[in-house]
Amino acid sequence: MRQRLTDHKPRRAGGEPLGTLQDAGELAVLTPNQGETRHRYALVVAFESEEQLRRAIDGHQCRYRNGQRIEELRHE
């Protein structure tokens, strides 16, 4: 049985941070210190605030919903 991990119902405040899945697949990441790094299997999850991002990093977990591009790809 295949479990869907992206369409969770929002939880009460204080739960895991909720991000938006913007892109997935082979990606290149640019950083000021490292330059370009390629990742063959990656997800780009964006958060609404720095506080949510920090909670996701500190807690080593988050939830996410599909962004518009991901939804379009799912229906192709």
Structural write-up:
By secondary structure, the chain is α+β, with helices and mostly antiparallel strands. The chain has one domain (18-74). It contains 2 helices and 3 strands. A 3-stranded mixed sheet has the order 2-1-3. Strand 1 and strand 2 form a beta hairpin. It is flat and about 35 Å long.
Explain the layout of strands and helices:
Blueprint: E1 18-31, E2 35-46, H1 50-59, E3 63-66, H2 68-74
Parallel strand pairs: 1-3
Antiparallel strand pairs: 1-2
Q: Tell me the total number of β-strands.
A: 3
Mean pLDDT: 84
Global shape: flat
Number of helices: 2
What's the quick description here?
With 76 residues, the protein is α+β, with helices and mostly antiparallel strands. Helices cover 22% and strands 39% of the residues. It has 2 helices and 3 strands.
List keywords for this structure.
alpha+beta; 76 residues; 39% strand; flat
